[in-house]
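dude i think i finally got it to work??
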Amino acid sequence: MVTEAVVIGVGNRWRRDDAAGLEVVDALRGRVDDSVVLVESDGEPTRLLDAFELAPRVIMIDAVVTGGEPGTVHRFTDEQLPDGMGIGQSSHLVQLYETIALGKLLDRLPNGLVLIGIEAIDFDNGEGMTDAVATGVADAVEDVLAELAP
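look at this
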Protein backbone atom coordinates (compact mmCIF):
# COMPACT_ATOMS: atom_id res chain seq x y z
CA MET A 1 0.00 0.00 0.00
CA VAL A 2 1.19 3.52 -0.80
CA THR A 3 1.90 5.83 2.13
CA GLU A 4 -0.43 8.81 1.81
CA ALA A 5 0.07 10.68 5.08
CA VAL A 6 2.27 10.88 8.14
CA VAL A 7 0.73 11.87 11.46
CA ILE A 8 3.31 13.12 13.96
CA GLY A 9 2.46 13.46 17.62
CA VAL A 10 4.92 15.76 19.37
CA GLY A 11 5.42 15.86 23.10
CA ASN A 12 6.84 14.56 26.33
CA ARG A 13 4.85 12.11 28.48
CA TRP A 14 6.67 13.31 31.61
CA ARG A 15 5.55 16.96 31.28
CA ARG A 16 1.79 16.64 31.95
CA ASP A 17 -0.19 18.40 29.15
CA ASP A 18 2.82 18.18 26.85
CA ALA A 19 1.83 14.53 26.27
CA ALA A 20 -1.22 15.60 24.24
CA GLY A 21 0.27 15.00 20.78
CA LEU A 22 1.57 11.57 21.79
CA GLU A 23 -1.81 10.63 23.26
CA VAL A 24 -3.54 11.52 19.98
CA VAL A 25 -1.18 9.19 18.08
CA ASP A 26 -1.85 6.44 20.63
CA ALA A 27 -5.61 6.86 20.14
CA LEU A 28 -5.24 6.66 16.35
CA ARG A 29 -3.58 3.23 16.46
CA GLY A 30 -6.00 0.74 14.96
CA ARG A 31 -8.22 3.53 13.60
CA VAL A 32 -6.20 4.40 10.49
CA ASP A 33 -5.18 2.16 7.62
CA ASP A 34 -1.71 1.21 6.45
CA SER A 35 -1.50 4.24 4.16
CA VAL A 36 -0.97 6.42 7.27
CA VAL A 37 2.33 6.36 9.16
CA LEU A 38 2.04 7.23 12.86
CA VAL A 39 5.13 8.81 14.44
CA GLU A 40 5.85 9.88 18.01
CA SER A 41 8.37 12.69 18.34
CA ASP A 42 10.04 14.64 21.11
CA GLY A 43 10.23 17.62 18.73
CA GLU A 44 13.91 17.28 17.88
CA PRO A 45 14.20 19.23 14.59
CA THR A 46 16.26 16.82 12.45
CA ARG A 47 14.02 13.85 13.31
CA LEU A 48 10.97 15.96 12.52
CA LEU A 49 12.44 16.96 9.16
CA ASP A 50 13.03 13.27 8.39
CA ALA A 51 9.44 12.43 9.37
CA PHE A 52 8.14 15.21 7.08
CA GLU A 53 9.49 13.22 4.13
CA LEU A 54 7.69 9.95 4.96
CA ALA A 55 4.55 10.91 3.02
CA PRO A 56 3.18 13.67 0.80
CA ARG A 57 0.77 14.84 3.53
CA VAL A 58 1.92 15.82 7.03
CA ILE A 59 -0.34 16.26 10.04
CA MET A 60 1.29 17.23 13.33
CA ILE A 61 -0.33 17.32 16.74
CA ASP A 62 1.17 19.21 19.67
CA ALA A 63 0.29 21.05 22.85
CA VAL A 64 0.19 24.79 22.16
CA VAL A 65 0.04 27.94 24.24
CA THR A 66 -1.90 30.76 22.59
CA GLY A 67 -3.66 32.16 25.64
CA GLY A 68 -6.90 30.39 24.74
CA GLU A 69 -9.10 28.13 26.83
CA PRO A 70 -7.30 24.92 27.91
CA GLY A 71 -8.39 21.96 25.80
CA THR A 72 -9.37 24.07 22.79
CA VAL A 73 -8.28 22.44 19.53
CA HIS A 74 -6.76 24.72 16.89
CA ARG A 75 -6.07 23.93 13.23
CA PHE A 76 -3.33 25.72 11.33
CA THR A 77 -1.65 25.15 8.02
CA ASP A 78 2.05 25.89 7.68
CA GLU A 79 1.05 29.12 5.92
CA GLN A 80 -1.14 30.24 8.83
CA LEU A 81 1.34 29.86 11.69
CA PRO A 82 2.16 33.25 13.18
CA ASP A 83 5.69 33.60 14.51
CA GLY A 84 5.86 33.50 18.27
CA MET A 85 2.35 32.09 18.83
CA GLY A 86 3.65 29.67 21.42
CA ILE A 87 3.90 26.51 19.35
CA GLY A 88 6.13 24.07 21.16
CA GLN A 89 6.66 26.26 24.20
CA SER A 90 6.45 23.19 26.33
CA SER A 91 9.61 21.17 26.85
CA HIS A 92 10.83 21.34 23.23
CA LEU A 93 14.23 22.76 22.55
CA VAL A 94 13.34 24.50 19.31
CA GLN A 95 9.92 25.89 18.51
CA LEU A 96 8.02 23.87 15.94
CA TYR A 97 7.46 27.04 13.97
CA GLU A 98 11.19 27.27 13.31
CA THR A 99 11.41 23.61 12.29
CA ILE A 100 8.47 24.00 9.91
CA ALA A 101 10.09 27.12 8.42
CA LEU A 102 13.34 25.19 7.96
CA GLY A 103 11.45 22.32 6.30
CA LYS A 104 9.91 24.78 3.84
CA LEU A 105 13.28 26.40 3.17
CA LEU A 106 14.87 23.00 2.48
CA ASP A 107 11.88 21.94 0.35
CA ARG A 108 11.09 19.11 2.77
CA LEU A 109 7.41 20.08 3.03
CA PRO A 110 6.39 19.63 -0.60
CA ASN A 111 2.63 19.62 0.05
CA GLY A 112 2.53 21.68 3.20
CA LEU A 113 1.54 20.71 6.68
CA VAL A 114 -1.45 20.84 9.00
CA LEU A 115 -0.89 21.42 12.70
CA ILE A 116 -3.58 20.38 15.15
CA GLY A 117 -2.76 22.24 18.36
CA ILE A 118 -4.33 21.46 21.71
CA GLU A 119 -4.35 24.42 24.08
CA ALA A 120 -2.40 23.35 27.17
CA ILE A 121 -1.76 24.87 30.56
CA ASP A 122 0.31 22.51 32.74
CA PHE A 123 3.86 21.61 31.71
CA ASP A 124 5.10 20.67 35.17
CA ASN A 125 7.04 17.45 35.68
CA GLY A 126 4.84 14.41 36.07
CA GLU A 127 2.42 12.15 34.27
CA GLY A 128 -1.20 12.79 33.46
CA MET A 129 -2.82 15.58 31.50
CA THR A 130 -5.31 18.04 32.93
CA ASP A 131 -8.96 17.12 32.35
CA ALA A 132 -9.45 19.92 29.83
CA VAL A 133 -6.49 18.79 27.72
CA ALA A 134 -7.61 15.14 27.89
CA THR A 135 -10.97 16.26 26.46
CA GLY A 136 -9.08 18.22 23.79
CA VAL A 137 -7.15 15.06 22.88
CA ALA A 138 -10.43 13.23 22.15
CA ASP A 139 -11.56 16.15 19.96
CA ALA A 140 -8.20 16.27 18.19
CA VAL A 141 -8.40 12.55 17.34
CA GLU A 142 -11.66 13.22 15.50
CA ASP A 143 -10.14 16.25 13.77
CA VAL A 144 -7.18 14.19 12.54
CA LEU A 145 -9.51 11.47 11.26
CA ALA A 146 -11.46 14.16 9.39
CA GLU A 147 -8.21 15.49 7.87
CA LEU A 148 -7.38 11.98 6.67
CA ALA A 149 -10.82 11.32 5.15
CA PRO A 150 -10.91 11.24 1.35
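The two ends are 16 Å apart (CA to CA).
im so relieved honestly
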